[in-house]
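pinned: reference chain
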Amino acid sequence: MSMAIRIKDRIDNHEKYVSILTKCSDKELAKKLELVFIQSALAEKAKNTASMELLELWYIQIVEARIYKAENNIPDEVSEMERVIAETYLNDAEEFQEEAKEESQEELNEFQPVKRSRRKVRRKNNDNNDGQLSLF
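pinned: its structure tokens
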């Protein structure tokens, strides 16, 4: 794609590109800005005006995306990989918690003292005992 076509595309679809960029994290947008600065310095050295113009459009769109995100408190969109990792971690944590509960319950059952019933000694009121005392 020639530079003129790329520049025209960036101008015509400005809002679309800004909305796509708002889905990136602020860290990613900052990295993109750094790359634009580096590429702009190289394009300026090479006196490549078409590249400089395209990079200027990229710069404007990245800055607009960052401002839009900040003003509207738009959270960073979680990538598919990050989402899968988070779900896996959450599921593993829940399973670990359940297993730990079961194990602790088993250990508790093992170490709980067994309640022993005490024998109750019943004393019988025998008349024989009374008779023996009367001898004295």
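why pinned: The mean pLDDT is 79. The chain has six helices and no strands.
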